[in-house]
Structures are given as C-alpha cells and as structure tokens.
Amino acid sequence: MVPLVKNLPQVWGDGQNIKWEYPLEGNGWSSPIVWGDKIFITEVTLDENSYTPDTTKARPGRRPEYPQDGHYRWMVYCLDKNSGELIWEQMALEGKPRIEIHRDNTYASETPATDGKMLYVNFGMHGLFCYDLEGNLVWERDFGSYPTDGDWGVSTSPVVYKNILYMQIDSEEKSVLYALDKKTGEEIWSVPREEKTNYSTPVIWKNKTRTELVTMGLKARSYDPGTGKLIWELDLGGGRNIASPVYDKNTIYLGMEKRRDGGGTLFAVKAGSEGDITPSEGESTSSGVLWSVPNSGLSMPTPVLYKGYIYITDRRPGAMHCYEASTGRIIYQKTRITDAGPFWASPWAYDDKIFCPDERGTTHVIKAGEEFEILSTNFIDDKFWSSAAMIDNALILRGVSNLYYVE
Question: What residues form DSSP beta bridges with 94?
C-alpha cells in the first residue's frame, strides 16, 4: 500500500517510539481501521472452559485446532486513538461456530470498513453487522453458511463506495457478489459467481475511462459498481487468490498465488478493457492485457505499486521481487531478505523505502528503486499477520498479543 498520509514513523521497536499498547484477548487477522480519533478492531474469543481439548491433534510449535464444540464470542472494539483506552465494545454474536476453519486462519480475518458514519463488520459465514460509530447496532444480515475449500475458512472484507456496500462471498457451494444499500443492508443487486472459495477483497478502480469494481478468483472480473454488469474478465490460469489488486489511473495489476494447478502470473490490465481479455495460449498480451509475467512471486501479501515499480514480498522464502510497472520488465526476482521470516502482512511504501513486515516481528526496510538494498530493520517481539493501518504521524500495528500505536 502507498499511504496518503504525512510523517509516518520509520524507526520503532520494543520500548522505542511506541506510544501505547492494547492487549488482545482473542484471535483475529483483521487489520485495525481508523476514523478521526477512533480505532476499530475485531476479534473472536474462546471460552477455555467450554470444551475438552483434543490432544491427539496437538503438534509442537503449531497453533491448536479450533474446537467446534467451544463457545465463542465475536467482538468489536473501539479504542481512543490518543490513549489506547477502550471507548466501547460490542459482542456481535456468541455460540458455536457454523463452519470449521484451518488453525492458521481465524474467525475474525475480515477487516471492517467505514464511511465515517457507520462501521461495517463482516464475520464471514457468521454474518454482517452495521454499527454507528458510538457502537449501536443499526442492521445485520445473514447470508448463510457454506463449506470452504479444505475448511480453510474465509477472509474477504467488505468494501463501501458511495451509497453501496459490496460483499464478495465465495464458497464451495455458493458464490455471490452482493451490492447492498449501506444504510439499510437491503440488496440493490447481486450476481452469481462461477467461482469456488476465494479470500481476497475487491477493489474500486477509478481509472481514466470509468470506475470499476474488480474482483478476484480463477477469473478476475470487472463490474459496473452501480448495476453489476460485467465489463471484462480474465482467466488467471489457476492458483489461489488472497492478494488484492493494485492500480493507478491507467493500469490494474493482479494475479494468483502459484499452486499445483497453476497460477503465479502477474497481469497488467489496461483501463478501458472490455469482454474476455484472456491472452491466447502461448501469448502474454491481449487486447486488454498490457503484459504478463509468470512466476511473479505473488502469494499472501498485496503488492506495492510505488513510483513506477511493483514490489512483491514472497510468503515462504522471505524473498522480494520487483518489476517495472509500465513494461513488466524484471528488476529483480527471488531476492532473499537477510534473516526474514515468512511474509503474510502487506508491505507499504513511504519516503523512497519499502517496509516489509514479517511474521516474526521484524519490519525490513528496503530501498525503493532498481538497486536492492536493505537499509534497516525494526523489531517488536510479537507475531504479525495483519496489515498495518496508517494515519498522519503514526502506524497502528496488530500483533497476536497486542495492538501497537507507533509514532
């Protein structure tokens, strides 16, 4: 991400430039969001006395499985930005979970959205909840519960644009894109999706030709945000989708994580494209595809588009890739970042630097541009899978143990 904020901190660590910490009781990979002096965050807590642990599935160094007979609480918190003190909390629902999920996911992996008046909280197969910013429930919707691929669960976040709230709900049984009246939760339009389970969040792409709603899956699809009419589609060649697209006025860049069935190609799609823009077999371009690069390194984190280059952090090897945005020219690939752990959270760009947070608590600061150079590191003793929130003069970082306000 490229934050539209000023004076972001560039140096921090345990006991250094951390204004406050807020302890987290439960689990969640959702990112914090900020509006005015309020920070919003979600998590799910488990009553440890509500179930009998299954010791047969325990493995050293691995997270425990989520018990299906446990009693959970799906929680929403509002914190004071300046002090880190709790302003209000709401329990959206409680009880046993509707679906199984993988131990590496959580029941609160979807990041909330706000328009400055309402807070939209999606808890996946457990419902969508709309609150005002004082914590009062305004409306809620239940879209049903459906199995996901390998019981991995879900993670797609809501998107709000003008008067519409968009929800992409993909599963093994039913996949639908919904456009809801953000004030009431009533359906404005919906379109069925020929997709199975996906995890990424759609984006609103305001380009030089029009405004589009772009979703990911085995096919990337662009829709008219007002009507749901399909504008263009692109077969991404297999793989798994978690990262969201990045874009400018002329081009949107997207692709899938490489898996056994394919994927891994980064595509550059031109503004103004229409119809099926999938390149012919053996080709890397088409009427709508400016260029494509196989084995791009796309995985969990969303890439960064910054000053003419695309930066990708690779999940497993702790590596980085860089491409020229206008041509797809490889600047460098699979470049190891010394001592880097796996990357799950998305990187960000600021002051000609790329900040790459790994799961072990180290943010690696890389020089932007064609010459790869590690400039510095910042360390907090926690585990980080959630992407950062940013405001003028501060970062809000979510670890497993705490929420950190860095200034």
Answer: 73
**Whole-number average pLDDT of the chain:** 95
On whether the CB atoms of residues 100 and 23 are closer than 8 A, the answer is no
DSSP lists the bridge partners of residue 390 as 395
pLDDT band at 171 (very low <50, low <70, confident <90, very high): very high
Instruction: Please give the sequence-ordered ranges of beta strands (E in DSSP) within 145-196, or none if there are none.
Output: 159-161, 164-169, 176-181, 187-192
Minimal CA–CA distance to 300: which of 350, 352, 258?
A: 258
- Count of Cβ atoms closer than 10 Å to residue 66 Cβ: 22
From its phi and psi, is residue 326 left (phi > 0), alpha (psi between -120 and 50) or beta? alpha
Q: Is 55 helix (H, G, I), strand (E, B) or coil?
A: helix
From the centroid of its chain, how far is CA 355?
16
Instruction: Give the span between the Cα atoms of 74 and 110, in whole angstroms.
Output: 12
For residues 188-198, average pLDDT: 97
Residues 33, 148: Cα–Cα separation, whole Å? 27
CATH of 30-55+63-154+157-197, one of 3.20.20.70, 1.20.1560.10, 2.40.128.630, 3.10.20.740: 2.40.128.630
- The Cα 1–Cα 310 span in angstroms is 11
Q: Say which DSSP state 27 is in.
A: B
The tens digit of pLDDT for each residue in 234-245 reads 999 999 999 999
